[in-house]
Design goal:
Length: 442
């Protein structure tokens, strides 16, 4: 037990003091992390960067930081300066902006600092190449523990290490097909709030809409596929209605009565039936892995030890009913610095999230990106994305349609072309060339 984290952390503090981090982005996830800092003597936040410095300082006060702790922290509106700070060992990128995330991560890696990429949008846009740059530089590039992709990656690792076949892995959410057309003007109706109530709570309608319209689910499943070597559905997530108790029955191959085309895939289950009624014992906030017994003896052990299975006795599931996002982020920080290990990280380009028109779009209209009025993000295999020359959702912001686009169509880069001088677009193209999938007919 001498290698348990408490012992390792005690040794670290004695020899080198607390782990020194920079935080870029001071939104909800970051605030939850900051709330843990006063009770985490092994972590010191040296610098916090946010475009709104006052907001960042207010966030610290709101979560309980003392005036002395706030005064001892550097606040800046320059994320790259935070990533370059001489006294920082690890950078947390939590802006949610894919272009900013790529820029900040590359700066940190160049400076020899570990990166915890809370910004899943940036990871899905170009994570394989960021991870490769980190490996070359000898630093860790990690998913954020507490967020669902890292927790799912941990469960997949567990299943494979035990010798089980991973059938499906993913998370739960609230989903109805009509949500794909939701906009920032309609989002609060689905959450049961008025716009005034949401505004008073400081809730961003476009960000919350990205969770509702399917985009965020697609992004998180692409991250899991790329980290765990899992496949994606050929034409988007199915979002089957499913309770936590029924995972092993629903998320198994169709040949055995489930909804999957094949094993080794990602999927998101809905907490709502298709008629909008709520499912009892839903997994809206949780994560899961469905796995298969490799032989009859293991299947018999499932039964003997009370593990619920499907009617074949071979498929079973484990799940975690909730996740605490930023409250759990310390696990990523400590593993990166103390153990030199990531809590999940992108390895390849297997899944992509492409922009789909929410409505008919006219030539010359401006696309407004994730959670907006014009597009939502759909999960597809990277081979399909490449074959279609599809526009990644992470680049579908602030560019004009160059032709008319029909509602429901996957948008190609011939129909909406990213700016030629855009750093994120250029890095994305480099990633595609370095990790090109085998192209299949779209």
């Amino acid at each position: 037990m001498q290698h348990a984290l408490p012992h390792l952390l005690s040794s670290r503090i004695e020899t080198a003091g607390p782990i020194r981090v920079a935080l870029i982005g001071a939104g909800k996830f970051a605030s939850m992390f900051l709330a843990q800092v006063p009770t985490s003597p092994h972590i010191e936040v040296v610098v916090i960067a946010d475009l709104d410095v006052d907001r960042a300082e207010t966030a610290c006060a709101t979560v309980g930081w003392s005036t002395d702790r706030i005064a001892a922290t550097v606040f800046t509106d320059d994320g790259e300066a935070a990533a370059e700070h001489h006294d920082v060992e690890l950078v947390i990128e939590a802006t949610g902006n894919p272009a900013a995330g790529i820029r900040h991560a590359r700066t940190a890696i160049r400076e020899g600092k570990h990166v915890v990429m809370v910004n899943v949008e940036a990871d899905v846009l170009a994570g394989p190449l960021l991870a490769k740059e980190a490996r070359t530089a000898g630093v860790i590039y990690a998913m954020a523990y507490g967020d669902q992709p890292a927790l799912v990656a941990e469960m997949v690792d567990w299943a494979r290490t035990c010798g089980f076949t991973v059938v499906c892995a993913g998370k739960g959410t609230k989903y109805l097909q009509a949500y794909h057309a939701s906009t920032p003007d309609t989002v609060w109706d689905h959450y049961g709030l008025t716009a005034a109530e949401a505004g008073e709570a400081g809730m961003n309608p476009q960000m919350f809409n990205s969770f509702l319209d399917g985009t965020k689910s697609a992004i998180e499943m692409a991250a899991i596929a790329n980290a765990c070597g899992l496949d994606t559905p050929d034409d988007g997530l199915l979002f089957p209605p499913c309770s936590a108790d029924n995972l092993q029955n629903v998320l198994r191959p169709s040949l055995h009565g489930g909804v999957l085309a094949a094993s080794n895939t990602v999927e998101v289950v809905s907490s709502l039936n298709r008629d909008g009624t709520e499912i009892e014992h839903d997994l809206r906030w949780g994560v899961y892995v469905v796995f298969e017994a490799p032989n009859d003896y293991a299947a018999a052990c499932f039964r003997q030890y009370g593990l619920p299975t499907d009617d074949t006795g071979r498929y079973a599931a484990l799940y975690r009913p909730s996740h605490l996002i930023g409250l759990e982020l310390n696990v990523s920080i400590v593993n990166a610095v103390i153990r030199d290990e990531p809590t999940g990280h992108t390895r390849e380009w297997r899944g992509d999230v492409v922009a789909v028109a929410k409505r008919d779009i006219k030539k010359g209209e401006m696309l407004d990106g994730e959670g907006g009025f014009t597009v939502w993000g759909k999960l597809v295999p990277s081979s399909k994305s490449a074959a279609l020359n599809a526009l990644p959702i992470g680049l579908a912001h602030g560019i004009k349609a160059t032709s008319d686009i029909t509602a429901g169509a996957i948008i190609s880069r011939d129909e909406a072309t990213p700016k030629t001088n855009d750093h994120a677009a250029a890095f994305r193209l480099e990633m595609e060339q370095s990790f090109a999938p085998q192209i299949v007919d779209a």
